[in-house]
Design a protein that fits this description.
Number of strands: 9
Helix content: 10-25%
Structural class: alpha+beta
Length: 208
């Protein structure tokens, strides 16, 4: 059984360790893309969820920025060349949701955890008044490829390009030079309302 709830400041060390383990990076402040300490408000920006089990504690985390616009999506892209607003079909001042990150511990993948969390965050974006959500996916590791999940929940690809590399020319994702890693930008239109059972985002929800 999984419990889903809003992250609290007390979760930050555990979330950092989870992200470091799943992403294969050093455990430390830099491994957390957005400080959990800023996420105690149900409509905070960004809003972070965690999934927990009685045995393993926090086993997944997912975070959504609510106060973003099309310009943020364009200017913050890791793609080379970066997308233009026209290529994404978004106005630079258009208010959108932006999925910051999603990590599920390997033993708990393919069990519907990511889908449940993403559905809850999409519901939150609707509550915040957004008509669209964007996400940028690093396309390099089939075992951690989120594209199937995104497509299954109605996301569509709108842009694809290579990754930006550091000065040494070595890809920060696969560790190789001159690799074929890529960036995919997906978006999803949102309905005007959401099912009542997805409204309770501030409290705990459970899933078998």
């Amino acid at each position: 059984m999984y419990d889903y709830r809003t992250a609290t400041p007390a979760d930050e060390p555990t979330v950092a360790r989870l992200i470091a383990r799943v992403a294969g990076v050093a455990d430390g402040p830099g491994s957390v893309h957005a400080p959990v300490g800023e996420m105690t408000d149900p409509l905070a920006d960004p809003h972070t969820l965690v999934a927990t089990t009685p045995e393993d504690g926090v086993v997944a985390t997912m975070s959504l920025y609510l106060e973003r616009d099309g310009g943020d999506v364009v200017d913050g892209s890791m793609a080379v060349p970066p997308p233009t607003a026209d290529e994404l079909g978004v106005g630079r001042s258009e208010s959108v949701g932006y999925l910051a990150y999603a990590y599920v511990a390997p033993p708990h993948q393919s069990r519907g955890v990511g889908e449940t969390m993403l559905r809850q965050l999409l519901a939150l974006a609707v509550r915040a008044g957004h008509s669209r959500v964007f996400v940028e996916v690093w396309e390099y590791d089939p075992d951690r490829d989120a594209r199937g999940l995104l497509r299954g929940l109605g996301f569509e690809p709108v842009y694809h390009a290579g990754l930006s590399w550091p000065d040494d020319g070595v890809c920060s994702e696969c560790g190789a030079a001159d690799c074929s890693c890529g960036i995919g930008v997906f978006h999803r239109s949102l309905p005007a309302s959401i099912p009542p059972h997805l409204l309770a985002l501030g409290g705990d929800t459970s899933d078998e």
